[in-house]
Each structure stands twice: as C-alpha cells, then as structure tokens.
Write a structure and sequence with these properties.
Blueprint: H1 3-24, H2 28-48, H3 52-76, H4 81-85, H5 88-110, H6 135-145, H7 148-169, H8 181-186, H9 189-192
C-alpha cells in the first residue's frame, strides 16, 4: 500500500466517523463541529483526486463561511434540546425511507465510477511545447464557454436571494438613525448651504443721554 492509498483510507474513515457523529450527537454545537471535520476530510479526498480547485472551494465556502455561520447561529440561539428530541421516533420511518432512496440513487449513479479504467492515451506532437494540465483552468474554460448562460442565471438567482433576504430582515427602528438614499440623490447644491451677505463693520446705534434725576 502506497502513501496515497493510506491517506485515502485515513480520510475516509475519519469522514465516515464525523458524518455518523453529526447525526448522532446530542449537542447541536458538537454536531456542527463534526460537520466541519467531515468537510475537511472530504477536501483532503478531493486533493488526492487532483481536484485542487474543488478542494480549496470546499474549505473556503463551506468551512470558512457556511459552517462558521451555522455554528454562530446555533451558539447564539437558545435551543431547547429536550423539545427537539420529542417526536423523533414518529418521524423516523419517513426519514429512513427517504435516506434509503437517496442512498440507492447515489449508488446507481456512482456505480460505474467505482470501476477502474485506464486513462486515455495522449499523443505527443513532435516539437510542440509541453503544457501542464490544470483542472482549475479547464473548469474556468468550461464554465465561461459551454455553461455561460446557466452561470449567469445562477448569479441572478443568488442576487435576487440576497436582496430578498435583506428586504425580509429590514425593520425600521425608532431609536436608530437612517438616511433615505432617494432624498440624497435628489438634493441640490442650494439645499446644502445658503449665502448671507453681511456688512464687515456694523455701527451700533448711539444711546440717548440719560436724563439727570431731579432732586
């Protein structure tokens, strides 16, 4: 057994253990931390398969953003664990059925990928420069050529989702100060300041002499 195979089995064992602990852990914080561990092991497996871009994306997006957000939300919310445990066995048959169907579908799709096949032979051209293949470059070319329109549609959907999330969570508070962007755009220079013409020296009015008091 070489080093690559040993690392694959090590990552796989830790990944399966972490995934099992995600669904069996009683503490939601511990479950989120085990999910982070599972993502790291999956990233290592992607790295062994020479998919560096997918490996780094998994760490940056899921571990660095999504799971950190989930972990902070779980830690800040006051979750009653006893309430969550109620009714578990009532929903277990439906959850087990759905999980079995998903597992069978994934096994049917990935069954052909488990069979080892020889890589296609690449014919070298005499005098041509040797170019090292990069899956990141190939993925970028595929996204921005063959899948450009689906990528733009996905970007528009994400933009609409961001705007909708901001609009749903926006609440006007009386104790907070805010500005209206529409009023800022319509403002003119004359509304900002006003020039007042004043004399440089202003003469004070002379006071009349005080009358002497008669004795």
């Amino acid at each position: 057994m070489d080093v690559k195979s040993a690392l694959f089995y090590a990552f796989s064992v830790i990944l399966l253990f972490a995934a099992f602990r995600v669904i069996t852990s009683r503490n939601p914080v511990h479950a989120a931390l085990f999910l982070v561990l599972a993502f790291f092991q999956a990233s290592g497996i992607w790295m062994l398969l020479k998919a560096e871009f997918l490996s780094i994306t998994l760490v940056l997006v899921y571990v660095g953003a999504v799971m950190v957000l989930f972990l902070f939300v779980v830690m800040m919310l006051d979750i009653n664990i006893d309430t969550l445990r109620q009714g578990f066995w009532n929903h277990f048959p439906l959850a087990a059925t759905i999980g079995t169907v998903i597992a069978l579908e994934l096994a049917g799709v990935l069954l052909g990928g488990f069979r080892a096949s020889a890589p296609p032979a690449v014919q070298a051209v005499v005098g041509a420069p040797v170019v090292q293949a990069s899956n990141t470059k190939d993925l970028g070319i595929a996204l921005y050529t063959h899948y450009l329109y689906p990528l733009e549609i996905a970007a528009v959907i994400l933009l609409v989702a961001i705007i909708a999330a901001i609009a749903l969570t926006l609440r006007e508070r009386k104790d907070s100060k805010s500005q209206d962007p529409s009023q800022q755009v319509r403002v003119k220079a004359g509304d900002r300041f006003e020039l007042v013409k004043m004399d440089a020296v202003k003469q004070l009015p002379s006071e009349p002499p005080a009358q002497e008091k008669q004795v």
